[in-house]
Design a protein that fits this description.
- The protein has two domains: 4-189, Oxidoreductase, molybdopterin-binding domain (Sulfite Oxidase, Chain A, domain 2, Alpha-Beta Complex), CATH 3.90.420.10; 205-325, Sandwich (Immunoglobulin-like).
- Helices cover 7% and strands 30% of the residues.
- It is built from five helices and 20 strands.
- It has helices at residues 20-23, 65-70, 112-116, 170-173, 186-189; strands at residues 4-5, 43-44, 50-55, 61-64, 90-95, 106-111, 123-125, 127-128, 131-132, 142-144, 159-163, 205-210, 216-217, 224-232, 240-246, 254-255, 257-259, 273-280, 284-295, 318-325.
- It has a five-stranded mixed β-sheet with strand order 4-3-11-5-6. Strands 13-20-19-15-16 form a five-stranded mixed β-sheet, with no helix packed on it.
- It is globular.
- GO terms for molecular function: heme binding; molybdenum ion binding; molybdopterin cofactor binding; sulfite oxidase activity.
Length: 326
């Protein structure tokens, strides 16, 4: 294992995000300003770091970061990463660099079939937005599994293991699962952790970013207010094909404009879609604006999904509420 330093790491896991109105200002999200972690951020010497591939494989591999750069074809993926057994084969990813809040290491797994399919675009990422990964985003190498819960895209990758069961890590087995409504607290949840599958594909979703709940908004001469947001497709079913907006609590819906990526939309299967609309709203208070998205496979965002104890994979209508329109 490579030498690790923690001198620049936060004592508590670093978790932060930018204001949502800043988030939708660009198709590509800046690498600084958002983080999701369960432990300290390791600072790894890439020249010493090795990724081991083992388990149900013909030959065990030990690959340096330099080999990952030079000996393998490089591949670019535009993807939105959202922060979730039978006898199917699985590929488990593990990071042993730092202890986590609930385990001595961090790991996650996905089905081997998904990992091996070329069109699934699962990669070992060395760069982000054209630059080397930063330590807080997994330097020197991390997994990126598009369409799948970000919890499976393990950072600071040490090991890849092919096996007949899911990762045994706490965050695969006892977190990021949609528990049934009967699980109402920690005690009642215990009976379900080993029977409920770990979250893999994320659902179709959209968010109203501008205006924010509680804002005061000036109506334009044509009686509309500007509304902006983003949407994400379900799992492998991208891209987002439609976003609709309502200002009368869902009685009527109007289609928003999808803001195309500067290059094209054909290569944005895994990416978010930015959208905007001019929405007619009567002056007054309180007012609200809702959004709902649909993807290429026809999945439509529901008004209110079933409640679960952890609140994970929530994808009810996007909403800006308690607006004052003047």
């Amino acid at each position: 294992m490579a030498t690790v330093g923690y001198e620049y790491s936060a004592e508590e896991p670093l978790n932060r995000e930018p204001p949502v109105e800043d988030l939708v200002s660009s198709f590509f999200t800046e690498s600084d300003g958002y983080d999701r972690n369960h432990g300290p951020i390791p600072h790894i010497d890439a020249s010493e770091h090795i990724v081991r591939v083992d388990g149900a494989v013909e030959n065990i591999l030990e690959l340096s970061v330099d080999q990952l750069h030079k000996d393998f074809a490089q591949h670019e993926v535009k993807a939105g990463v959202t922060v979730s057994d039978g006898q199917n084969a699985h590929v488990a990813f593990a990071c042993f660099q730092t202890p986590c809040q609930e385990d001595s290491w961090y790991g996650g797994s996905i089905e081997l079939e998904r990992a091996m399919r070329e069109d699934a675009d699962v990669v070992l990422a060395l760069e982000m937005n054209g630059n080397p990964l930063s330590p807080n985003h997994g330097y020197p190498v991390r997994v990126v599994a598009p369409g799948i819960a970000g919890a499976r895209s393990v950072k600071w990758l040490d090991r890849i293991t092919v096996q007949l069961h899911e990762s045994a890590n706490f965050y695969q087995q006892h977190d990021y699962k949609v528990l049934p409504p009967e699980a109402v607290d920690g005690e009642s949840a215990k009976q379900y952790w080993h029977t409920v599958p770990a979250i893999q594909d994320m659902p179709v979703n959209s968010v109203v970013a501008v205006p924010k709940s509680g804002d005061t908004v000036a109506v334009s001469p044509d009686g509309t207010i500007p509304v902006k947001g983003y949407a994400l497709p379900s799992g492998e079913n991208g891209p987002v094909t439609k976003v609709e907006v309502s200002s009368d609590e869902g009685k009527t819906w109007n289609e928003a404009d999808l803001i195309s990526h500067p290059e094209d939309r054909e290569n944005t299967k895994w990416a978010w879609t930015l959208w905007r609309a001019a929405v007619k709203v009567e002056p007054g208070h309180p007012r609200s604006v809702w959004s709902r998205a649909a993807d290429k496979s026809g999945n439509v965002q529901p008004s209110c999904p079933q409640w679960n104890l952890r609140g994970v994979v929530y994808n009810g209508y996007g909403e800006a509420k308690d607006l004052t329109v003047v």
